[in-house]
Amino acid sequence: MAGNHNSGRPALPATVHMLRGDPSKKGMTALQAAAQEQAIPVQAPPKPDFLTPEAAMEWDRVVEALLALGWISCLDMMALATYCEAVADWLRFRRKISELNATMESSGDVQTFQSGAKQLSVWRQLANDAEQRANKAGALFGFSPVARRAMKALAPQGELFPNAPRDAADKYFS
């Protein structure tokens, strides 16, 4: 389908358009208003009380980093809870697989039927499903190198003109 909302390059921020001399022809007044628009504030959503203990530990582990990067707001509770529960499920299933692999009578990875047929065990299937859910929900928060490539961290801007060039600029523009 041509022309959907995913087509083309992502839009540039209004500040970039202003720095480039308004190549978008939107008008400087509109660009200044867009640059000063208040975005959703960066803050941690309240931790849900329904999280399992392992999911709550994962929540505590990632929220601090997400706050530092500016990639979380109060609107992200469900997505983050989904990620944390998927990680907790994955840990639980992996522990069960390790426990079954440690015993000699059964394997946690492969299930063998009386006919001799083999297939992935239920525990392995559940672990794979939990891993997929965690990866999908984690991509929303940049929890993989590929997902981080598309994310934009809030980094403080350094000085535009360091030392001598700044002093020269102050002399002419103040």
How is the topology of this model organized?
Elements: H1 14-19, H2 28-35, H3 53-69, H4 77-102, E1 110-112, E2 118-120, H5 122-139, H6 145-150, H7 163-173
Antiparallel strand pairs: 1-2
Helix pairs in contact: 3-4, 4-5
Structure summarized in a few sentences:
The chain is mostly helical and 174 residues long. It has helices at 14-19, 28-35, 53-69, 77-102, 122-139, 145-150, 163-173, and strands spanning 110-112, 118-120. It folds into 2 domains: 8-37, no CATH class; 38-152, no CATH class.
What does this entry look like structurally?
The protein is built from seven helices and two strands; from the N terminus they run H-H-H-H-E-E-H-H-H. The protein has 174 residues and is mostly helical. The protein has two domains: 8-37, no CATH class; 38-152, no CATH class. A two-stranded antiparallel ribbon has the order 1-2. Helix 3 crosses helix 4 (77-102) and helix 4 packs antiparallel against helix 5. The chain is elongated and about 85 Å long. It starts with 13 loop residues before the first helix and ends with a helix. 15% of the residues are buried.
